[in-house]
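Dear Dr. K.,

Following up on our conversation at the group meeting, I've run the structure prediction for Cyclin N-terminal domain-containing protein from Basidiobolus ranarum. I'm pasting the input sequence below exactly as I used it, so you can double-check it against your construct before we proceed with anything downstream. Let me know if the numbering doesn't match what you have in your notebook.
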Amino acid sequence: MAVSVPEYTYYTLPGTRPIHNIVDVKSPLKLSKALLRDPDALMSFAAFKVEVALQCEKVNTHRPDLPSLEAFVKLMTIRTKLSLPTIIVSLIYVGRLHKSLPPSARGDFETPYKIFLAAVLAASKFLDDRPIENCKMASLCDGYFTLFEINEMERCFLSLLNYELYVDSEDVRVFLNENRNLLQAGLYQEGW
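The predicted C-alpha cells came back this morning:
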C-alpha cells in the first residue's frame, strides 16, 4: 500500500528571499586549522567593529565592574564557544545596525557590550541548530547582565534591524572584502 504525501507549497513572506535561494553562509570560509592564525586579533577586531557602530559614553559610571570591551568580547567568545561563521554574521548584523541608526544616535557606556551580546544571540539563532539560549548567555555573563536585560537588548536589537536577519554567502564575501585590510586575524577565503 503506497502512502501519498501532499506537496508542500512554500510562500515567501514580504521582505524575505525565497527559500530555494538559501546559500550556505559557511561556504565562503574554509574552516580549517589555518583559518584562524590569531584568534585574539579576530576578537579585537570584533570589539573594534562593535565599538565604532555607535558613539557611546567613554566613562563608566553605572557598572564599574565591567571589563574592557575587548576583554568582554574575548571572555564571551570563549565561554560561548562561538564559531567563526557566528562571529562573522554577528559583525554583519552590527554593520546593519550602524547603517540603520541616525548619525545623532548615542549610547551609554555599556551599549557596545549589549550590541555584541544581542548580535551574537541573533547570529547563533540564525545559523545554529542548537543556538545559544538567553538564559545560558545570562549565566555566562557572570552577573554583568541579567536575563531580563539580555531579553530586552535582543528585542531592541532585532527591532532596530527590522528583523532582517537573512545573510547569505555573498553578504559574507562583501563583509570580508570590505574589511580585508582591517582583518589581521589570518582569515582567508578560497581564491584570495
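Two things stood out to me. The first helix runs from residue 39 to 51. Helices lie at 39-51, 69-80, 84-100, 111-127, 134-140, 147-160, 169-178.

Best regards,
J.T.
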